[in-house]
User: What shape does this take?
Amino acid sequence: MAEQLKSILLIATGGTIASAEDGRGLSPVLTGAELAACVPEIDGLCTLDILQLMNIDSTNMRPADWLRIAQAVAERYERYDGFLILHGTDTMAYTAAALSYLLPRSTKPIVITGSQRPMTSSFTDAKLNLYQSLLYALDDASCDVSIVFGGLAIAGTRARKQRTMSSNAFISVNYPPLAYIRNDRILRAGALSAGANAQAASAPHKKAARTAVEPQVAYHTLNDRVAVLKLTPGLSPHLFTVLKDDYDALILEIYGLGGIPDYGIDGPSFKNAIFDWVDSGRSIVLTTQVPEEGLDLGVYEVGRAYAEHRGILRGGDMTTEAIVAKMMWALGQTHDPHALARLFYQPINHDRQM
Assistant: This one.
């Protein structure tokens, strides 16, 4: 008796990969079924079902849509061996981070991909991305939420779109890629054996024997009253007062390792503004606007005053995209400062160094 192929659910949400030109600019029109049909190399690799959840430009992707995607996965989690989500690139890193928190510690792969050029365009990267993403979703060593794009597999909380046009659009920030994918071979870190590193596309992907899988924990609430503010020379601390009515949490991108201006007694006070913000029951996360190596408030005097103040959270080496998603998730579960801090500092899907 022939072994049963693995089953994958492809969830289509739109994006450049599904777009076509209609005289007014690119917009998503192709369905998930049409996209899959454009890549005949995936035929026979698995049992592939397709769910057309939405068909939007990812610029229009909102937290409510993250919840729809997470719910679609959670409702079908026991029926499939993995999930492949087609998504636009502009907000892909935010969605990947959000799904990492809404569906934490998934024992099954939840893979997100898209393309820089539409599927039907000449020299598109869409076909290879879809094919390699499916290979990665079928690999026994794959789990949790990841982005597969341009030959890289990146943890869902560590991805950032670095380039607007090139096919290697995404980088992994402050954490090594999970794998490199070369044609039909998945090359992982040295912890895995050479046999696990080579995956041939021509070989059927049989359903591996699995231990009992516990039902996936899924969260159903987010608080989208979270905003990002980038510190720039001359920025007025008065902005904190202006934002109070509309936001429960701010993510403040500060200078370098942890620099916040102190203009002295004659200048506007960021310290007063930030302390007033958190003392009013709101939350703030301090992170660095420098892309790599993270934050350390204890190095400079201009940052040390904020290191231990109640309600001030530190982003460490997390990406801003991950901080946004994690704060929306954490605030969706609690407003208690201690519980919020526990959730925020809990490492999930490699989002922060221990």
About this structure: Confidence is low (pLDDT under 50) at residues 191-202. Residues 330 and 344 are 7 Å apart (CA to CA). The two ends are 47 Å apart (CA to CA).
